[in-house]
Amino acid sequence: MKLLKIKNLFQRFRGKKTEKIDLSKLSTLKGEDDSLVPTLSYFDLVGLNGLEIPPNIRDRGYQNEGTSGDYPFRTFILDFGPTTLSTGTLDALYRAGAVNVTHYLTKLTKSQAVRLYKQAATDEGSRLLNMIKSGNDIEAREAQKSLDAANRLLEEISDGFNDGFLSTCLVTIFARDEKVLDQLGMIMQDNLIGNDHHLRIAYNRQKSGWISTLPIGNNRFTDKNDRRFMDRTAIVAASPFYSSEIPYSGGVPAGVNQHTGTMEFLNVCAKYLPNYSSLIVGASGSGKSFFNKFVSSSQIQLGYRIFSIDPDGENGPICRLLGGREVEVRENADVCLNVCAITEEEVEITLPTGRKVNRVVVPVGPKTGQLVKFYDKIMEGLTPEEKAIVKVAIKNTFNQFGITEDPKSLYEPDKTPQNINGEITYIHVRKREITLSDIYWQMLLATTINPDKNTFAYEQLKDPLADRLLRVCRGYLRDFPDGKLLDGQTSFGDGHSVDSLLDNISWINFNIKAIEGSDIYDIVMHILFVLGWEYFVKRPSLRKYHKRIKLEEGWRMKRVPGGMEFVEDSSRRSRKYNAGIDVITQDLNPFIDDDNGKALVKNATSAAFFRIGQIEMDERLQLKSIFNLSDGELNIICQRPPEDENDDSRGMCILRVGGSTAYIKVTVSEEMRHFIDTDPDWLYQHGLLPEVEEAV
């Protein structure tokens, strides 16, 4: 469409009116004479009432919007400092409100770019020599940095690994009055000056600036002094959407990039990541569980070891298919999860010589703290007197079993012969684990007269303050339904020791759906996580493997005293054990409302944000602040649910690894989908809905 003159389109000066066209008469006019029918452009329909650039004011103009009045505006030219921008540098512009930001880019040929940067390197070298001669050390260091950057960029362009562009960045700010306009300009300038960028007012060129920031590609600023050299990295960083690709560092296929059409890979254990924990968040039906099972199955193929806590019992089919083991946790079953289980761990110490070494110890102190928090949960709050009784009982139990910080204290002193592959081998056998019954017996010894070890009965109390403690804890011993699950030697119901089971399988999945609604549900989740940490993450024989603890609906840990704190601490420490914590949740609010929970999700260096639905503005701003999300990313995450059956947004998410982000759609083969999809309609269409087993 041919553009009309700017003067007629935008009616820039007040008092000058253009001819109005009666749209209802267009058909009549066309019938009489086609040459009389005017062509309406986009600007005819959305054009402003007027625009005024006062002749006596050089740094602003006024945009008239009818009954809304005049809005002052000011146009700036952004003068870049360094050639290479860092991600988020221009956020102060993109998030300032009513602001138009336009980048005009002209790609240089390779010879032009090389010639330009040879000159830049020469100029920086001359500046460095002058600063050294004048004794200005600070400026000399800055000149040296610029010279190094110029030489590096020159090499990249010469070798064909980078390109050169000339860029003009124009910024037009709108406000309700001149005072607010000045304040916005100062705020934006303060945010940019820290990165050596600044806004330069386009004096006497406000009209040209206003036109140039309109989305019509009409750049009125072509002077050499208005343009700046930029490379490809700077152009990507200047985009409001942080990054369109994730650097390949191995890992597993995650989904198809919706911008480039290529496959993106997720490597939660990439060497450049500060820790290996990750976050998967999304509303029900958005695809988060599908994604988790898809990634988990691929990780198993790469040799990972997985310990998963499965509240909905969804992981069983894919876990068994890949040679894993599913443990169904239910009351009155043969499974026992001993909250008192303890094993060795490696700690870093500094020798008198200053050298750091790893030493294997038994964490008696931390384990005592975990057990005190367990009793605090089942007691719904310990009194100071009750807490003292619990601590003494735990201490006496460790002493009774001879367990100290020495790893040898966990094993029997004498070696026991074992028949391994037809050969007799003598090995140290672990002592039996401390149980809740052992601790309860120490409570009885300290607070009652003539206790019976077999029945846990006693004649009378020596300490009346222990009455409530003994009554409540009695219900968690092995002769009660809850106690059968919690009080005893750790067992997964197959007759094998826990040690050998975790050594010989790649994936162990704990299905806790059977106890959903039970009053010990949250406690069991916490115990399982502690078990995973003690027996799985810290296990020396598994040190060589990449390990993952998959914690679904981890917000429940908030209900257990110290639970969220323990998970957060584990996520920070897991990397030195070659492990990471994967938190999968529908709702982030329980984490954000808890200090330890917030630290946990912020500490995750890998994340997949699926659709979480429409949320309030305060929540959007909180998400934006905590995870450093752009407006474009937030719009994807906070989109409304699908509106019709043709909507194909399920499985789309924002994938983040380190500082790189990509917009992907999770895509799997039909064969894989049979094992990981939980959509009832799809399962019904393919005859995969679970059948009801008939009684014999």
Automatic annotation (TrEMBL):
InterPro entries: P-loop_NTPase, T4SS_component. It comes from the Bacteria. Signal peptide: none annotated. This is TraG P-loop domain-containing protein. It comes from Cohnella phaseoli.
